[in-house]
Sequence to fold (353 residues):
Amino acid sequence: MDFRHPFFTNPRLSVGYGIFWLVASTVVVLIATLVNGVPVERAMIEIFAFIILYAVIGAAIWYVIKFSTLEDSGVLRIILAHLIAATIIVFLWMYIGVVIIKIFHPNTEEWLGQTVFNRAVAGYAMYVAFVIFFYAVNYYYAFKDKVKDETHLKALVKEAELQALKSQINPHFLFNSLNSISSLTMTDPARAQEMVINLSQLMRYSLKHDQHEKVSFKQELENNKLYLSIEKVRFGRKLNPVFAIEEACLNAEIPNMILQPLYENAIKYGVYEATEAVDVITHCKYIENHLVVSISNTYDKNVMSKKGEGIGLRNIRDRLQVIYANPHLMKIENTNNEFTVTLTIPQNPKNNE
Fold:
């Protein structure tokens, strides 16, 4: 969440705010001098001491509403926070205002004492007006961020779909799969038929995945098991998929096509370069309304691994950031001879019942 004050990030808003209070102060000064007969000097000092001063101090109300939004706090907590903040701001405003007036008009104690109650009421009333104003500004910025995030998400989803189709239907993948099928038709026709069925199901899932933003973890897992079964034919004993899945995970929701790049990464940088069997291990737990999925693969220490975060991993990180507004939902660990990627995906408790 961005806690920067909008007056620092939006010059037009700060200029408009300043112009409004200057115009309002000028109008009040004119009324005081022309209608009520107050001397111009005294009217200007009083306006500065109270109206302009409140405009400056009142800008701090923005931080009160940022830390006590309607979405994140209860009604009683919000009311209490604003009562405390209003009391502090009104006290500072009145105290500083009185000091300023006494500097220029030392003999105004009696008049100031008679107006304390009225000014306190006016101070609380202006606080309410400032709260309404800053809540409106806050929701305007939130709306703009939401529209921006939705636009970014649509672009990322489209890019992910194209990348998924490219990685699944690219000539190398199909060529290798068809070669494996061709060999199996001579040595093991039943297994060749099974591989054809798996390949067709994988293609069907990839072509329809754009119809839903999220799918159940069970659906996503079954699709990736098809992918691994096809690659198992290609790599044989070098690829050893292992699954440790808690029952509670199966009905959880997960962004579609978000796991396959992890398996592709494990095969590309672990299995493909290995000379011995490589375990591709999938762990899944449901912890405090979060689905925690870890995919790890062993690799040969003697084979130089490629460093850095690939396009697939970056796309996953970007999608999680836009969907869940949290840049820390993907964690990468590389210890000893094991590479692990962990996704922590927030859940709606109702979806797991």
User: Anything to note?
Assistant: The longest strand covers residues 278-287. The chain has a mean pLDDT of 81. The two ends are 31 Å apart (CA to CA).
